[in-house]
Design a protein that fits this description.
By secondary structure, this protein is mainly beta. Helices cover 0% and strands 53% of the residues. The strands form two sheets. Strands 2, 4, 5, 6, 9, 10 and 11 form a seven-stranded mixed sheet that branches. Strands 1-3-8-7 form a four-stranded antiparallel sheet, with no helix packed on it. The termini are far apart.
């Protein structure tokens, strides 16, 4: 089982940017995704990237967030621009599998990284 460690979160003003990293303990051979969970809300998919590099985004982040990966470094990134207060959440990465139009997480969750957007 791949062990994932998220980092790069922090406090940023509205309109600012952050780059999250997800370091995997082994080679990234599967599709990967970023999720987020805000207080009192369910965890939701933010962005996914397939082994071949195809991407998928939640409507709420399209045009602002970009998911990418570095296979040599076994790392998946989430570049977040134009951040809004509603982006505040704990962000997690996960190995995922696509079933139709749905992405399902596989394996256990890491600790995540906190992103707070506030003035």
């Amino acid at each position: 089982q791949v062990h994932l460690v998220e980092s790069g979160g922090g406090l940023v003003q509205p309109g600012g940017s952050l780059r999250l990293s997800c370091a995997a303990s082994g080679s990234i051979l599967s599709s990967m995704a970023w999720y987020r969970q805000a207080p009192g809300k369910q965890r939701e998919l933010v962005a996914a990237i397939t082994r071949g590099g195809s991407t998928d985004y939640a409507d709420s982040v399209k045009g602002r967030f970009t998911i990418s990966k570095d296979n040599a470094e076994n790392t998946v990134y989430l570049q977040m621009n134009g951040l809004k207060p509603e982006d505040t959440a704990v962000y997690y990465c996960s190995v995922v599998i696509r079933r139709g139009s749905r992405w399902d997480p596989l394996g256990s969750w890491g600790r995540g990284t906190q992103v707070t957007v506030s003035s």
